[in-house]
Automatic annotation (TrEMBL):
Highest taxon above the source species: Bacteria
GO molecular function annotation: ATP binding; ATP hydrolysis activity
PROSITE patterns in UniProt: ABC_TRANSPORTER_1 (PS00211), ABC_TRANSPORTER_2 (PS50893)
Organism for this UniProt entry: Shimia gijangensis
Keywords, sorted A to Z: ATP-binding, Nucleotide-binding, Transport
ABC transporter domain span: 6-241
Protein name (record): ABC-2 type transport system ATP-binding protein
Zinc-finger keyword on record: no
Organism taxonomic ancestry: Bacteria, Pseudomonadati, Pseudomonadota, Alphaproteobacteria, Rhodobacterales
Segments crossing the lipid bilayer: none
Amino acid sequence: MTQNAIEITALQKTYRGGRGEPEKHALNGVDLSIPAGSIFGLLGPNGAGKSTLINILAGLVIKTSGNVKIWGFDQDQNPRQSRAAIGVMPQELNLDPFFSPRGALEVQAGLYGVPRAQRRSDEILEMVGLADKADAYARTLSGGMRRRLLLGKALVHQPQVLVLDEPTAGVDIELRQMLWSNIRKLNQDRGMTVILTTHYLEEAEEMCDEIAIINQGNLIARDSTSNLLGQMDAKTLVIDPVSMPQTLPSADGITVEQRANGTLAFTYQSTKTTAEEVLSVVQSAQIHIRDVKTEQADLEDVFLKLTSSR
Ligand SMILES: Nc1ncnc2c1ncn2[C@@H]1O[C@H](COP(=O)(O)OP(=O)(O)OP(=O)(O)O)[C@@H](O)[C@H]1O
């Protein structure tokens, strides 16, 4: 097995501008490797270049320059093998309305040249929860069912790498949980490498081992989710005081703020100050505590810090 499921080197994409529009540099020389067996999140603001990158991996957009290897196969030198190694669940619900779920999977398997004996349509339908709709017309399927069918279609040729473009955009909580559990299962039981784009940072935080952040066509961060979260060592101790003190306490390295709900927020850097030190400041100010809780940075804070500073 290759160590990296995906290896991208100096990838550039420039879209030609139409009718007097300037050309658009959607990717400016991206280098990115994605380890085999990981669940990898690709994040970025609108228009950052995520779909362009995914569509290049899927063979739907032609790169301007650079190199892409999928499962060790160079996209230019081994187009057939590199295409066979990847399955893509697109964002749009573009299904042929005249095919049943089983029919759609069979057609997809045919397109990928999967021999009949190796097709696993029923198993896939079972997995994505569409077994009872196997022979229904696609046009009678709900939005959530269509999305699950698209996941099924991405799996027919048993790719080593599964790419999901905004898999849970606009879906309800129940379906989101189901998709998450499907994705985790594919990753854990079959060792499938999963790459997903998402606008839900909590989804990336919950699902992804590693994360890359793209902004304006450039890769601006790439690290394990825990390291990215560790970059933000600001913590806040929120105290609900029995009564509000006349003057707010102060101490080096601690910012104290009175919140509208009558609590006091003590923000500090956890690498420099301990919660115990904060509590001793509270005590010496003779503030009696009714309740206390802590808050710490999440991926949203990291994302905003990285993407707004450029
Ligand atoms: N076919 C195209 N022709 C011209 N410009 C394009 C084309 N496709 C994308 N772009 C431009 O390239 C840039 C990157 O777009 P892309 O769709 O890759 O971003 P994205 O990160 O996927 O955004 P979103 O989160 O909104 O889906 C944008 O400025 C977009 O307007």
